[in-house]
Every structure is written in structure tokens, then in C-alpha cells.
Amino acid sequence: MIAQDQDLRANGKNHRTRWRLWKKLARSRDGAAAIEFAILSIPYFMIVFAIIETFVAFTAEQLVTNAVNTLGRQLRTGEITYNLGRDSDMDRSEFRTAFCDEVSILINCSAEEIATPSKLYIDARTFATFAAIPNTIPRISADAHADINPATFAFTPGGPTTINMLRAYYRWQVITDLIRPYITTIRPADGSMPSDFLIVATTAFQNENYP
After folding, report:
1. 21 by DSSP, 3-state: which?
2. 89-136: pLDDT as tens digits
3. In this structure, what DSSP letter does residue 152 have?
4. Which long-range contacts (CB under 8 A, 24 or more apart) does 90-98 make?
5. Is 53 part of a structural domain of the chain?
6. Is 184 inside any structural domain?
7. Could you tell me the residue range of the domain that residue 94 belongs to?
8. Which has the minimum average pLDDT: 39-53, 104-118, 192-206?
9. Of 2-11, 46-55, 75-84, 176-185, which gets the smallest average pLDDT?
10. What would you report as the CA-atom Rg of the chain, rounded to the nearest whole angstrom?
């Protein structure tokens, strides 16, 4: 009987001890910051990397736009000409080199890229009227995220008083894997991981009546 009473008292004591430990554990804040960080780290880093990726892509887009405006102005004023038998004449390769020089702060064009485009595409053509200038992005399919179709691209700007269009496309690579599905605008038809944000810049103008 005495042994039984001792067992009951011991069990009650153990129960009270366990209950105090659980209450103490529930009140404890040790490691709470680490647990909260572990829970919030993924969305936090996604937001941080999205801001960085968007900022860098926007900067690259501004560079491409500025290059289009600068070289478009030089075409309009006759500082750069094509196939007119002048010292200012540039062929396609020379024009691409000049364009790459304008964006070299952030975008590096290799000699291979200048000769055979894989990221940077330039389309410079003359048109009979402004209404004839295309106003859509040429894509390989009707999908809004399909890759561009450079089949119609050319470098044939006109001479004095002609109406011209200069547009540039650049496949900007998104580096962060977590962000790629959300900010890329070119997505492979085979469902593989997308990697490119398409930068587009266009200017249309009528050349001055330069001599």
C-alpha cells in the first residue's frame, strides 16, 4: 500500500514536471527569429531578386532605347548612310558594331554576335508611308510569349527624305531561377525553363533632305 502511494505521488510529480516543461517551452522565444526567417526567407528573397532583376533589365532596356534613338537620329541627318557611295556609308556589320558600342556599358557583343545574331537583332528599312510600318512584334507563332521571328529583318535604310524605321530586339537573360517564370517574356514551346526577357525599342522617322 505504501509502495502504491509512493508510485502515485511519483507519477503526479512527473506529470506536474512535464506540464511545467511544456508551459515553459510554450513561453520560450529562443530560436523564434530563426524559425520565422526560415518561413519567410523564400518569399523575401524572391522579392529582393525580382527587384534586382527588374532593375537591371530596365537599365538594359533604357540602353537599347537610347542606342536606337541615337543611331536613328544619325540616319535621319545623313551622318550614317547606306549604299549611297559616301564616306558615311555603313553596311549591316558596321552598323551593328556602332550599335554595340552604344550599349557596351552593360551589353557586350562579341564578334560572333555581330556577324551572326543570337541575342541582338536590328531591323532598319525604308517604307513608302508611315502607315506601312509594322506595329507588332514578329513572332514565330501567335503565342504572346513565342520567340521573335527575324526572317523579315533587314538593313536597308533609305536616303534623303525617305521614311524609315529602326528597331532593335535583345534577348536579355534572367539569371535567378526563382524569378524566371514570372518576368521572362520569351518562353520555349517545349515547356522548358524560360530564360529571356525580350527588350524592344523602335523609332520611325523621315530623313532630312541632306545633300
Report:
1. helix
2. 999 999 999 999 999 999 989 999 999 999 999 999 999 999 999 999
3. G
4. 91/155, 92/122, 92/155, 95/71, 95/122, 95/124, 95/155, 96/120, 96/122, 98/71
5. yes
6. yes
7. 33-206
8. 39-53
9. 2-11
10. 31
Terminal C-alpha separation, the chain: 122
Cβ distance 74 to 205 under 8 Å?
Answer: no
**SS3 state at 163:** strand
C-alpha span between 49 and 21 (Å, rounded): 42
Cα–Cα separations (whole angstroms), residue 34 to 28, 37, 41, 47, 49? 13, 5, 10, 19, 21
- Which amino acid does the sequence have at 162? T
Q: Indicate whether 211 belongs to any domain.
A: no
Residue 65 lies in a domain: yes
User: Which residue type is seen at 3?
Assistant: A
Q: Which amino acid is residue 165, in one-letter code? A: M
Q: One-letter amino acid identity for 101?
A: D
Our count of domains for the chain comes to 1
C-alpha cell at 129: 508611308
Global confidence as pTM: 0.78
